[in-house]
Amino acid sequence: MIKRIYLTGFMTSGKSTLGKILANVLGWNFYDLDFEIEKDEEIKIAEIFKTKGEKYFRKAESIKLKKLSEKDFSIISLGGGTLVNDDNLKTILKTGKLVYLKVPPEIIYRRIKNKIDRPLFRDFVLEGNSKETFIKKIEDMLKERNKYYCQADLIFKIDNSPVGITVDKLAKSIKKLLYEKN
Question: What domains does the chain contain, in order, with CATH numbers?
Fold first, then answer.
């Protein structure tokens, strides 16, 4: 029986927002990997990147993921780059089902264009890059991560639908995934 659903996708794809609601719909627990790391470290992810570096963050991320992978009946929202680590990917595929929230670059751009709390885009936002340059960076990052994202058990396409409709469709897709024969 499947006891864990991992949500992956690019930053601002809705992993945390949809994950919380989805967990409620299924009657499961919800964990946001980044938030759990922030609780442990007692500082924000952006500050971890700034003061301790990405390498430190990725190690903390792997340790916390292993702990969360032992929690039954859980929806776990992953960071945008969690899958890039092969050990993380193996843990996820071994202990649950992976769901990729696939969002078009244009929607990602609209969601992230003014955010300075995203370490990998902070300087990009502050430099005032054009929409075209911004979308190109998003597309390049998506292309790099696609080989990881596409290992998902379910690829769920996100559009401009209201959150309620999106959660309803996602919950139906995940219920099918949970009850299909393994």
Answer: 4-104+152-179 (3.40.50.300)
